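ingest -> validate -> predict -> emit
validate: passed (alphabet ok, no gaps, 319 aa)
predict: started
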Amino acid sequence: MGIGAAMELLPDVPHMAIMDTAWHQTMPSYVYTYAVPYEWYEKYGIRRYGFHGTSLLYVAKRAAVLLNKDPFECNLISCHIGNGVSINAVKDGISYDTSMGFTPLEGAIMGTRAGDHDAALDFYLMQKEGYSPQEMDKKLNKKSGILGITGKYIDRRDALKAASEGDKRSQLAIEMETYRLKKYIGAYTAALGRLDALIFTAGVGELSDIIRAKILEGLEILGIKYDPEKNKLARTRNAEVNISSDDSKVKIFIIPTDEELVFVEDVVALLEGTYDLHTNFRYTFQDPDYKNLMREKSFEKECKENPDLVKIQANRNNR
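emit:
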């Protein structure tokens, strides 16, 4: 409806759509197919699609630069943690598996979404409470997750503050969310077989040292070892930082996402007729010398207030 209305109002302007699911179209059929009657896939396209693709594309390409490797030789796990949450397994530079599914409801615990749960409980509650399908959809997407557990918070900062002040349900919500994310990292590490880097991005992933620490604790068995002091320092959305310990086999990067830049470069390429799949297309931010000048200026200001930030900046000379 939105596309149709825009084309009617602006008939002489080029129109294009950048699909958030495109990044995940490389997933194999045994990953994206659900174990439900196969004719549902044939008739309705019921399958795992995944979301947050523009963000996950950006951080995967940037991680390859920080690793100084060919992007198609990199195995990565990207954790896009905001109000919505996606975990993405990247095998040889392409999306292999992801936590969101047919809709963004599946997967991790989110601000207001339930994430993974027994689908039978939905039918049980519909019978018990008399919810319509539309009401149940709203409960699972708008009234669950962190909000559902705490009863009042969506923003992790509010939940963390309440948890620190002794609020039991906020403590439970944080423990549940970080435990679920830890499980996904373990599962995806097993699926990939080899891991080069673990990436945190989006608002919570970039700024919450507490949630990152809870996720990372105990992952040494997977070769993932973080530096607690570096992690505490890493509270910036203006620089790519490395919070790995010196002896960690797997790099741990915090990479501020830049979905807008991906959109812009895709649009320009479509207008100029040079667009192609990311496996055949090179973005400007894949250049080893790429710099986001606006973020760089903001980071310089942050470093004046906290000079130690420079020590954890992840760049070609300090990986």
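The longest strand covers residues 85-91.
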